[in-house]
Amino acid sequence: MSGAPFREERGSGTVLVLAMIAALVMLIGVVHVLGTAAVAAAQAARGADLAALAGADAARGLTPGDPCTVAEAVAERNVTRLDSCQVTGRDGTEVFVSVSVGVPVLPASLSGEHRGPWEAARTARAGPPSTAEM
């Protein structure tokens, strides 16, 4: 008679295990999206830095070409998109760039796209040190 009250709970372990598996799958999905966003932010920062440096080299005459055209080519090689480019400074050797990269939700092998619904954007400056840095 002591086992009779627990007969109604038969199969509840299966439901509990399924709920735990569903929670684990959702947690893995959240970690994946956050990790992908962090990787995209690092990629955008790298692309912005390299594009600004390449543009500054072109502005100083160290490499041939228009600074913004060179910066755009370098941004594309780093799988980022150049959103803006400004050449400033007293002698035109300071370059400000803004780049962005898509944050994919699914891997490109599953979705067929490298860009996602969100974007990671970064800006960078390259050129001679400003007077505040001296």
From TrEMBL:
Keywords: Membrane, Transmembrane, Transmembrane helix
Domain Putative Flp pilus-assembly TadG-like N-terminal stretches: 11-58
Region (Disordered): 113-134
Segments forming a coiled coil: none
Membrane-spanning segments: 15-40
Pfam families to which the protein is assigned, alphabetical: Tad
Protein name stated in the entry: Secretion/DNA translocation related TadE-like protein
Organism: Nesterenkonia xinjiangensis
